[in-house]
Amino acid sequence: MNSNSVLHHRADSMDWQRAFSRLGYAGGCPQVHGAIKSVPEDFQVTELMGFEPEGQGEHVWLWVRKRQQNTEQVAKALAQHAGVAYRDVSYSGMKDFHAVTWQWFSVWLPGDKNTDWQSFTLAGTEIERVQRHTRKLKRGTHQQNRFEIIVRDLAGPTSVLEQSLARVGCDGVPNYFGAQRFGRQFNNMPLAVSHLCDGVAIKKRHLKSIVISAARSWLFNHVLSERVSAASWNRLLPNEPANLHGSNSVFTSTGSDDEQRRLAELDIHPTGPLVGRHSGPDSAFEAQEMAWLEGYQDLVHGLQRVDVASLRRPLRTRVENLQWQIQGTQLALTFTLHAGQFATSVLRECIAETDQS
Fold first, then answer.
1. Cβ(257)–Cβ(267) below 8 Å
2. Per-residue CA distances from 181 to 136, 171, 210, 221, 304 (Å)
3. Which residues pair with 151 in a beta bridge?
4. Apex CA 197: angle with CA 300 and CA 16, to 5°?
5. Which residues does the entry assign to the active site, renumbered to this chain (predicted)?
6. Which CATH superfamily is domain 51-133 in?
7. Half-sphere exposure of 236 (CA within 13 A, CB side)
8. Where in the chain is the domain with CATH 3.30.2350.20?
């Protein structure tokens, strides 16, 4: 994806969706086409917390199944039902709307406070478990998500699809943020440009957070696409910050034989920037990243001014427990991803998608 001073154009005239579609493919453009999310049941997501609530404490944890419901709307409905403020309801992560998903919510109900959860009603939503815990559920608490996906109307050589799936299971995929991060019809990006580059205020705190996140994700995707084009998305460059798989731990690579072994085993990964305060060319490596973002300097400078810390994100997604079955023109597959990684970024390496949602 070539930026070519892309922000010199007005945000509302840029085709963000087209630019997103040009992100690089590790294995080349897929030769097989298929339809995802034909119905919500074709895209099922289960949150894997890694522990169970303790059974006592001030916070009521609710295991919720939702179908075609927004995570935030479910949280608001739970708050209203319990008679508490919205801030007293929390969840670990946002889940897809056009899908069937299972995830935990927590509601702060200290002491003897309780509510009749069996009488809770919201279209497409069901509380399947109620359990108390000593702590509230914080963002990013869950470890992984398990996906069960059906792709319909396959068209193309299934032998090539099998090869692509095998490669993905062995080598992983570029860890792109999915299109859903940028809003419906990519509407978050014009808002990001107007806020961060033109100084247009966003009064709603939640919307401001979403817009800033979209901008950081866009820049990360751009750097990752450059690394994919250079065939270095799965290699450690000299003095690159590396990530330990399944954690937020980052360390500077030394190029040792042990690091190369762990890299090949997908135990450590190269990283890319989530731009924020202090992002900049503090090293030759970071200077190269800033050069890749030359066409987005206004967006970079805007993010450096806001109150958000710069972070690193792995460039590679390890696809765990991948299984698949092809029957006629239908593909059924299951796999597990670390929290914050996108199933659609796995699918795009294998299938030219027709999203029906």
1. no
2. 25, 24, 8, 11, 20
3. 331
4. 80
5. 96
6. TruD, catalytic domain (3.30.2350.20)
7. 26
8. 51-133
User: Is 3.40.50.1110 the CATH classification of the domain at 6-30+173-317?
Assistant: no
Show Cβ contacts of residue 128 under 8 Å, excluding neighbours closer than 6 positions: 63, 64, 65, 102
Nearest to 100 by CA among 175, 33, 35, 150: 150
Q: CATH 3.30.2340.10: which residues of the chain? A: 6-30+173-317
Q: Please tell me the pTM assigned to this model.
A: 0.92
| Distance between CA atoms of residues 337 and 146, nearest Å | 7
Distance CA 299, CA 246 (A): 29
Return the H-helix or E-strand segment holding 304.
helix 297-305
Predicted confidence at residue 181, as pLDDT, reads: 94
Q: What is the pLDDT of residues 188-225, one digit of tens each?
A: 999 999 999 999 999 998 899 999 999 999 999 999 99
Q: What is the pLDDT of residues 123-176, one digit of tens each?
A: 999 999 999 999 999 999 999 999 999 999 999 999 999 999 999 999 999 999
